[in-house]
Amino acid sequence: MNRLHLNLQFFAGEKTEKATPKKRQDQRKKGQVLKSQDVTSAIVLLSVFLFLLFGAGFMRDRIFSFFYQTFNRYVLIDSLSVELVMEIYSDVLMEMGFILLPIMLVAMVAAVAANFFQFGLLFTTEPLKMDLKKLDPIKGLKRIFSLRAIIELIKSVLKISLIGSVTVVILWMNLENVLSLSFKTAWDTLSTVSYLTVMMGIAASFVLLFVSILDYFYQKYDFEKNLKMSKQDIKDEYKNSEGDPVVKSRIKQRQREMAMRRMMQEVPNADVVITNPTHYAIALKYEDGQMDAPVVVAKGADFIAQKIKLIAKENEIVMVENRPLARSMYDQVEIGDRIPDEFFKAVAEILAYVYRIKRKI
Q1: Is 219 exposed, middle or buried (0-12, 13-18, 19+ CB in 10 A)?
Q2: If DSSP codes are grouped into helix, strand and coil, which group holds residue 49?
Q3: Which residue among 39, 43, 80, 249 is the one 20 to 30 A from 222 at the CA level?
Q4: 63-103, pLDDT tens digit by residue?
Q5: Contact 321, 275 (CB under 8 A)
Q6: Angle CA(108)–CA(113)–CA(117) in degrees, nearest 5?
Q7: Is the peptide bond before 277 cis (omega within 30 degrees of 0)?
Q8: Rounded Cα distance, 239 and 22, in Å
Q9: Is residue 279 exposed (0-12), middle (13-18) or buried (19+ Cβ within 10 Å)?
Q10: What 3-state class would DSSP assign to 319?
């Protein structure tokens, strides 16, 4: 028996269930989302080289302008002063900014776009918090000799092999141009090298993009695997979010008991109790000039009906037997509600009867 109990506990703790929406939301708040860093790197690299392919002319003109300004303004200076040095430094930074800023801007936009397409808009400072568990050497060794480490090694080997192969293919296809570089002018040599560099960069970016797509599917598998929950985890989450069913049941029971006590406290204030006579009891109250219609202050069936009648008898409340009226009002009127118009005539007759009895008393 104990062994069976232990087996049930083991299977209850095994993470076989898909993560609930709440678990996913909690992990997202902590910054733990489905993301492949290789996808971001590949898109950034591809964007930068595509920009160089079409925007290299702008950068070339800015670089020539920078050198032209340098050789015409600063080389022939006889003496330097602090003010002049600061001016030169400022000009150099300005020119470098004009040259490098477009590349940095393209890289930044590409990185933001790549992450946005993977997991949407997310801002959290949770990953920046100090976590001493990350310094645990045992966990560090487990990470080194884990399946993820092996996958990362395979990815690295695959990247190097594919990028190296693509680079060799591009150089082989342009072998004649490469071998003739020594016979070309400096300008032609620079143009050829720039062209080959951009072509190899774009090809390498597409190779990385292909590898990153494979990595994305692996990251998705690993992410879903780590998010899995056990049946016990789901039960605990439900208890924490919705409340323990046992506690909720007790709270509802207490609420019913309190409502019952309040209802029974109103019975002595009623004017009449209409009965079935054994199954239903409806207590009505009417104050002339303050109420536009009688109000149900208590109602009940079976045991509660008997309790209402007992309290009514102890407080000398008139009880009138009317089976169809008692049954209909029990089904249609809630405690605290005025009686519907269809019951006005029958209830008025009963109240008139009650008032006649009270006057005789």
Answers
A1: buried
A2: helix
A3: 43
A4: 887 777 777 776 666 676 777 778 777 887 888 888 888 88
A5: yes
A6: 155
A7: yes
A8: 13
A9: middle
A10: strand
